[in-house]
Design goal:
This protein has one domain: Aldolase class I (TIM Barrel, Alpha-Beta Barrel). Helix content is about 30%, strand content about 20%. The chain contains 9 helices and 10 strands. The strands form 2 sheets. Strands 2-3-4-5-6-7-8-9 form an 8-stranded parallel beta barrel, surrounded by 4 helices. It has a two-stranded antiparallel sheet with strand order 1-10. The chain is globular.
């Protein structure tokens, strides 16, 4: 999971070889974003889905984010334990008390507010995953990494064109920029198609955050995820041999 060798960064990730000696890097791991307001896939079905996905060492399904917008959804400690027993980290979006009460593995902060992040750092134990969505600027993403976040989530496909005209460190971060400079793992956020997953994989993402609209399709969910996994697993990525 997040503390394993899969999280050791692939510095200067490349898609093609050059005169530097290179070694084959692993594909990104799968991070499912599950929105409980989308009722096609009940949370109880995630165990079945996980067992149907290609969970090989090449591209394991390692993390599940639960968006708890629906107060009536059944996100219980017992259910979390069942998911964790499949070697999947359960991460709760924005709700620190809920994450603590049900024994979740971590918290995902959708707002890149420094005060909210610092409060989470102070509240949660050191072994809890604290990920954050880096929306506003490269500078803020760097601050979160320096202050010890577990991962930075970067949305590759919903950045306004005018934002690209800003000064470099005021722009939203991009995967290929991030992985070439920082050791903190990256999650390519809100991947909505296999084509986007391919792009993020080639840019060096450590995790693919598959959007609920992409994969939460009831009984077809596992098939959709599995096809995406197989596609990105076939992409060769290289890193320099140190």
């Amino acid at each position: 999971m997040w503390a394993s060798e899969a999280h050791q960064k692939k510095d200067n990730m490349m898609n093609t070889t050059n005169e530097t000696e290179l070694e084959l890097a692993p594909p990104p791991q799968i991070y499912l974003i599950m929105d409980l307001s989308l009722t096609e896939t009940p949370l109880e079905d995630i165990e079945t889905i996980a067992k149907a996905i290609n969970t090989s060492e090449e591209a394991p399904f390692s993390s599940l984010l639960i968006k708890q917008d629906n107060p009536s959804s059944n996100c219980s400690a017992d259910l979390v334990k069942k998911i964790q027993a499949l070697n999947i980290a359960v991460i709760i979006e924005d709700n620190v008390p809920l994450a603590q009460s049900i024994g979740a593995d971590g918290i995902h902060l959708s707002n890149d507010d420094e005060d909210i992040f610092k409060a989470a750092i102070e509240t949660l134990s050191e072994d809890i995953i604290i990920g954050i969505k880096a929306k506003q600027s490269r500078h803020k993403a760097m601050i979160f990494a320096e202050e010890g976040c577990s991962y930075v989530a970067i949305d590759l496909f919903n950045q306004e064109e005018h934002e690209r005209e800003l000064e470099e460190f005021e722009r939203p971060p991009e995967i290929n920029w991030w992985v070439s400079l920082f050791s903190t793992p990256s999650v390519a956020w809100n991947i909505s198609s296999t084509e986007e997953a391919i792009t993020a994989t080639k840019q060096g993402a450590d995790f693919l955050g598959l959007a609920p609209e992409f994969w939460q399709k009831g009984e077809n969910s596992a098939k959709i995820i599995n096809e995406c996994v197989k596609t990105v697993s076939a992409i060769e990525r290289y890193l320099p041999v140190l």
